[in-house]
Amino acid sequence: MIKRFYALEELFLKTKEKKELECTNLLGNVIKCSFKWNQPISMEKLKNLTDIHQLQLPADYKKFLLMANGAILYDDDENSGYQLLALEEAIDFTKKKRAFGFEGIKEEWLIFMVDLFDSNMLLFDMGEVGNKRYILDGIVENPEKEWKYLKWDFTKFMNLLFRTNGDNFWRW
After folding, report:
1. Would you give the distance in Å from CA 24 to the centre of its chain?
2. Which candidate among 18, 27, 62, 107 keeps its CA 20 to 30 Å from the CA of 39?
3. Is the pTM of this model over 0.85?
4. Bridge-partner residues for 36, per DSSP?
5. Which spans in the chain are helix H?
6. What is the Cα–Cα distance from 161 to 130, expressed in whole angstroms?
């Protein structure tokens, strides 16, 4: 049986103590990227939040939450990188965005990651989690009806983010 590679777990193990990694950016420059990992969520709290808010989260995202309930990934001196939101933050952030200017964010969508440089968002379409295309690219300058589905699940997406040293490859 082939074990599925989980890059987010590898990043966690490599950066949990040291909290930084040397990365090569798209221009070939070696830069230092920092990482910050939140404490894991408890199984009980995860179950309570998913039940109360009727969340259909991907299994691989739940695995991440049990490892670290939120993280800062690939942050460099220019405030680029990503914030993987803690589950509570994701719920609150999604509600706030929906209430203040993003009325097109559907009830079954959950913002799980924010780009620290340009505030663009990645969302789960929890109604599509059974399919392999459930991540939406939320470009803040575009109306929500123009947001596109990415062709990867959470694990594949994180694996590709790892391989590209944190570059937003999905927009190339």
Report:
1. 21
2. 107
3. yes
4. 72
5. 7-15, 43-52, 59-67, 87-99, 154-163
6. 22
